[in-house]
Design a protein that fits this description.
The chain is an alpha/beta fold and about 350 residues long. The strands form two sheets. A five-stranded parallel beta sheet has the order 2-3-4-1-5, sandwiched between helices. It has a two-stranded parallel ribbon with strand order 6-7. Helix 6 links the parallel strand 3 and strand 4. It is globular. About 5% of the residues have low confidence.
């Protein structure tokens, strides 16, 4: 697991004012944390760049998908790789206009200039489409045709959290790489390494608590670590972590779930609106914490409750109105609690 080893070198010391997420972002594919199978496959593909396929990176947030794409572009195209790489966040520009204008224009360039770091002519340009599962189906359909027409000059790296939201014609034109969620050992080791490089003291329980909150999201874990470290002059304690991740908000989720199960629908709805609009908790985080709360409390009808949560999680993914769906979720909890009280 050599990818978790960070080295304190000139590049690290020269970016002391950067967010740690950027300061410690891997520069080479080999530094990606615990995606060994993917690293091996990409290293094999790099040996013959001209035969490299379009790629589709799928997996949870914060596990290295975008970083891997940037590292690959860097290693294939050399130091000035950004001149021949187009990076777009598809969640910001979801429609067909973005595909037809920005993507098609960039992919239409026929001749590449410059050479790669191994002194060979650059094999192609690269287009990185992040959060592509947020693109409309019409935009994805238009993208499929561009992928076909520009294959001689361009390679696409399409990144998504939910593979099911990418249309089949695009999936079939790409080599699919499934990134796995990072386990506790990976996260804890990486955070401890950052603490040592930053000369920060930490409590073992505090580092473990960060993982319990972020659940395998390394990017989020590093942000929480930096926030916690800034609260107490370079000391990471459980109290600092609690403040950084807002466990008060997490505990409010448990209260809302209990109120709903007890049949107090209006009270639970009011507290839900407060949690979203005042505390700023996202709808997906609410469902995640609700799941953890009921699992930890060993709710008797956890199987039925899991089915309900899965249904509303799916509705959020496909774009249903989040507040309406969460209020309906609370109503379903009320029915489930009523059946249990009989």
């Amino acid at each position: 697991m050599k990818s978790t080893k960070l080295k304190e070198d000139e590049s690290v010391n020269s970016y002391t004012n950067l967010m740690w997420v950027e300061k410690y972002r891997p520069k080479k594919i080999e530094q990606i944390v615990n995606q060994k199978d993917i690293i091996k496959a990409l290293n094999n593909l790099k040996k013959n760049p001209n035969e490299m396929p379009h790629m589709l990176f799928a997996g949870p947030a914060g596990v290295g998908k975008t970083t891997t794409a940037l590292c690959l572009a860097n290693e294939l195209l050399g130091d000035d790789w950004r001149n021949d790489t187009l990076e777009l966040n598809a969640s910001d520009e979801r429609g067909i206009k973005m595909v037809r204008e920005r993507v098609k224009e960039f992919a239409a360039v026929i001749k590449l200039t410059g050479i790669s770091e191994n002194n060979n002519e650059k094999p192609f340009r690269i287009i990185i489409l992040d959060e592509a599962d947020e693109m409309t189906s019409e935009a994805q359909t238009a993208l499929r045709r561009i992928i076909e027409d520009s294959s001689k000059t361009t390679r696409f790296i399409i990144i998504c959290n939910y593979l099911s939201q990418i249309i089949e014609p695009i999936q079939s034109r790409c080599a699919v790489f499934r990134f796995k969620r990072l386990d506790k050992e990976n996260i804890v080791e990486h955070l401890k390494t950052i603490c040592k490089l930053e000369k920060i003291q930490f409590e073992e329980e505090a580092i473990a608590q960060i993982f319990d909150f972020t659940y395998g999201d390394l990017r989020h874990s590093i942000n929480v670590l930096q926030t916690a470290a800034g609260m107490n002059m370079g000391h990471v304690t459980k109290d600092n972590v609690n403040s950084a991740i807002g466990l008060s908000g997490k505990s409010k989720v448990g209260e809302i779930v209990r109120l709903a199960l007890d049949g107090k629908f209006n009270d639970s709805r009011i507290k839900l609106m407060e949690l979203i609009h005042v505390y700023g908790m996202s709808e997906k985080d609410f469902l995640k914490y609700a799941f953890q709360e009921t699992f930890n409390k060993k709710f008797e009808k956890f199987g039925e409750l899991s089915e309900i949560m899965a249904e509303y999680d799916y509705r959020l993914v496909v774009g249903a109105h989040p507040e309406i769906q969460l209020v309906a979720f609370l109503a379903q909890l009320g029915k489930l609690g009523k059946d249990e009280r009989k």
